[in-house]
Prior knowledge:
Elements: H1 3-31, E1 35-36, H2 39-47, E2 51-56, E3 60-67, E4 70-77, H3 84-90, E5 95-97, H4 103-127, E6 144-146, H5 163-177, H6 179-184, E7 192-196, H7 203-214, E8 218-222, H8 233-247, E9 251-256, H9 258-262, H10 275-289, E10 296-302, E11 320-323, H11 329-339, H12 351-356, H13 363-379, H14 387-403, H15 410-430, E12 435-440, E13 451-455, H16 465-486, H17 494-509, H18 543-570, H19 572-585, E14 587-589, H20 590-596, H21 602-606
Parallel strand pairs: 1-4, 2-5, 7-10, 7-11, 8-9, 9-10
Antiparallel strand pairs: 2-3, 3-4, 6-8, 12-13, 12-14
Zinc ion (ZN) binds next to helix 15.
Amino acid sequence: MNPDQNKKVQFSIVWVLVAMLVVFAIQYFLTGMKVDLPYSEFKAAVTQHKVQDLALAATTIQGTLATNNGDAVFKTNRVDDPGLIALLEANGIRYTGVAQNTFLGSIISWVLPLLVMFALWNLVMTRMGAGGPGVLSIGKSKARVFVDTNANKITFADVAGIDEAKEELTEVVEFLKTPKRFEELGGRIPRGVLLVGAPGTGKTLLARAVAGEAGVPFFNISGSEFVEMFVGVGAARVRDLFAQAAAKSPCIIFIDELDALGKARGYSPMGGYDEREQTLNQLLTEMDGFDTRKGVIIMGATNRPEILDPALLRPGRFDRQVVVDRPDLVGREAILNVHIKGVKLAPEVDLKTIARRTPGFVGADLANIINEAALLAARRRKHDVGMAEFSEAIDRVVAGLEKKKRLINPREKKVVAYHEAGHAVVAQCLGSADAVQKISIVPRGIAALGYTIQLPTEDRYLVMKKELEDRLASLLGGRVAEEVFFNDISTGAQNDLSRATDVARAMVKEYGMSSMGLASYERPHNPFLKGDAWMPNEKEYSEKTAAEIDAEVTRILDKAYKSAKSVLEGKRDKVEALAALLLEKEVVEREEFLKVVACESPAAQEG
Ligand code: ADP
Ligand code: ZN
């Protein structure tokens, strides 16, 4: 909460207190000075001629009462007494009837509690950080708008090391610059772009650079800021955000942490329909209803695309996904170069060395290192930042990241390199597996420490049994390489093993490619029901058959394992060379890979 809001909260507390005081004062004035008389004493006073000027209301009687020390105003509650008027007349006492004055009473009993509640509600709202002037702004979006002037403009030049992502976004820049022309040419107008990548890889920076390049306003809001306690508030904010954006088009809306708002809808334990779901629905509606010609591009960022609601990824919504990877060696050097501007370096500083020492670091970490090093140099009263400062800064950042489990240590890195080399060499040397495109040991996401991308060389509709077997062998190649080169195995193969098991199971149950014969043990899935926990696929075979299937799956996996092992043992030197290359460069593309691992297998040479 900012100090401004704090003042507002105190302000309304004061008002509530003042209002209460006023009410008490009025009540005191109205009731406090009267003598309350029991009805019997009142009647006695009538007969003694001690009362005067009576005002008879429906439930009370007021008047003046003569007491020992002067006249006083008195009040008594009426009882059902039909003889009263006769008594008053008999004693010659002046009386008037009054209509009950209900006006003040109703103010006190109705309006005031309302006022108090309103004040309290206002106070709570301000406290909750709805922002703006209290209750009236609760549905306003809190997006920060940047209209970058030339002085602080962020452009693509400020973003380094993620060239592929940059390239994919140039089209968006083109569109924002001249939406009209883009449309005349018949270009398919992008609407939503999802940036996927680990924290600190520069997603926000990239989105701002797109706005800067195109010279359009940039609305920045985090998905978590839509999520509020009160139903409807988030949805109102979404509406407001889009209305604001429409007024400023062409522009970019950037929603950071999209997953906070766009988690897959499910049954919430509190009932089917909750606040977040309503907010998400509003976002979907706004995205659909948006006229793309207005030139508003919605960019979202997440590091967990897998938990997003599938509806968000449908055509016309966030249908374009741009992966913002962790930078490799070359990329890290480029990022260092961007951030080194304005820092005075000692002549011995070599950015390439720093880049080599920081595998797994993202842009934010690298910016952090340079900042730390500069601070260290200042503390040491040096005139420039030397390699010693950089070393120390790296050590500090590494320690911090290791605590956060975001870095892999050198030994793990070596295991990952051999693991990935194992996949690639088996795939290449068995020939019929898909061709290796790229191998990387730059960690990606939480689960994958490295990856090998294999793509089929042509579009395929049929897969032969031999190909499936080779695919299995290359899936197991990672695990086998760990075994062959380290005499030990790691947990890193978990995903490989589950994928291999799926393939083997399909070979037995669906494709009739085992000694179980031609029977199909699996009906085609209903794609709409698949995966629903409450409606599992029914098993249509006996327990005995199930056991046979399991045995058969194991046998197929075993065979693949043996074939992977025989390849890797025969090509030890190649695996070692490839692993060494990976450790040095972190990413190896197809051409370089082929130079190291040229297999004699006929299929491999042509692919
Ligand atoms: P994300 O949105 O992916 O979490 P940010 O865009 O907020 O990451 O990055 C934080 C900071 O790290 C940026 O402001 C910038 O200084 C630095 N940074 C991150 N990635 C890069 C990059 N690729 N090039 C230059 N600087 C970067
Ligand atoms: Zn693997």
